[in-house]
């Protein structure tokens, strides 16, 4: 378990006590995808908003959901697909309070011999997925539908997320595989001939949203802490975006002061990766555009993953500074 406790900087004056909030992640925080949280901790944004933030890495979405619903954590970050399934199918008492990536970050990676450049190219292929039934496979299903491809013609193979998955493409065991954006950026650096299809440009669904429970949000004190957490993340996003001119040198330095993030060891990868992530944050940085949420629901319900005719707007209770 990883914990990052943010202490207030002291200038000789007595500091007011910080309010504690626990935020759980579904994977280790040492990834570019969590750059705003790491920068907010290292730069003191959380402390400036009066927060002592405990970032805890759990193993997967089910554990994170249980922590939030059970009250041991106030916030987690999930994909919009799994959030809608949890609420719309399993009636989980969750509310979306904000977003980090308003646009999907998954990529479909293939080789030059049989490139997947459009959704239609997926017909008759074998595609590697990290696991069956997860967000990656659901995203693949949406991209297949967008291409008008018969889903039965696309074979799924569980390949995990190990660095060597691309070798399976070269060996002909699979034609393509789904991977996070970090993986794709690093791969394009080491294998310039790799072909990358941005799933987020093909479908509306795929956002990463901050989620809390309805019961906790009924407490004004908890709601206030979540509001300040999102404000601090927003500040960190603004800092990172402004750091683009330096190639994100200050961002990388801040993160390296506390964390070892392998994908950020190469400045060229940092520049390409952070450029891509900043784009996914959208102009509101921390607030999910309601039209994207409703569009994602239309796609997800159209595929039968959640029932049609529900009111996805009632699952939103956004607390970000752009509200």
Automatic annotation (TrEMBL):
Residues 34-243 form the SsuA/THI5-like domain. InterPro entries: NMT1/THI5 (IPR027939), SsuA/THI5 (IPR015168). GO terms for biological process: thiamine biosynthetic process. This is SsuA/THI5-like domain-containing protein.
């Amino acid at each position: 378990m990883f914990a990052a406790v943010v202490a207030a900087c002291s200038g000789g004056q007595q500091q007011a006590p910080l309010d504690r909030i626990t935020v759980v992640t579904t994977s280790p925080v040492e990834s570019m995808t969590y750059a705003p949280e790491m920068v907010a901790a290292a730069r003191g944004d959380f402390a400036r908003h009066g927060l002592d933030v405990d970032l805890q890495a759990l193993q997967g979405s089910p554990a994170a959901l249980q922590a939030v619903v059970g009250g041991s954590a106030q916030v987690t970050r999930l994909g919009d697909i799994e959030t809608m399934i949890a609420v719309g199918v399993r009636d989980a008492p969750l509310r979306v309070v904000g977003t980090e990536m308003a646009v999907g970050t998954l990529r479909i990676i293939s080789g030059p011999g049989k490139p997947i450049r459009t959704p239609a190219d997926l017909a008759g292929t074998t595609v590697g997925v990290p696991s069956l039934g997860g967000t990656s496979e659901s995203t693949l299903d949406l991209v297949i539908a967008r291409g008008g491809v018969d889903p039965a013609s696309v074979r799924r193979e569980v390949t995990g997320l190990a660095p060597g998955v691309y070798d399976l493409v070269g060996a002909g065991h699979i034609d393509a595989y789904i991977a996070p954006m970090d993986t794709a950026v690093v791969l394009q650096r080491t294998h310039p001939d790799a072909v990358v299809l941005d799933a987020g440009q093909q479908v509306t669904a795929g956002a990463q949203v901050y989620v809390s429970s309805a019961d906790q949000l009924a407490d004004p004190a908890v709601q206030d802490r979540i509001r300040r957490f999102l404000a601090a993340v927003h500040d960190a996003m603004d800092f990172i975006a402004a750091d683009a001119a330096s190639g994100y040198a200050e961002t990388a330095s801040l993160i390296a002061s506390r964390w070892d993030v392998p994908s950020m060891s190469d400045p060229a990868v940092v520049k390409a990766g952070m450029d891509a992530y900043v784009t996914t944050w959208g102009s509101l940085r921390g607030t999910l555009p309601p039209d994207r949420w409703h569009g994602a629901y239309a796609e997800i319900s159209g595929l039968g993953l959640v029932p049609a005719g529900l009111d996805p707007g009632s699952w939103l209770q956004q607390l970000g500074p752009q509200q």
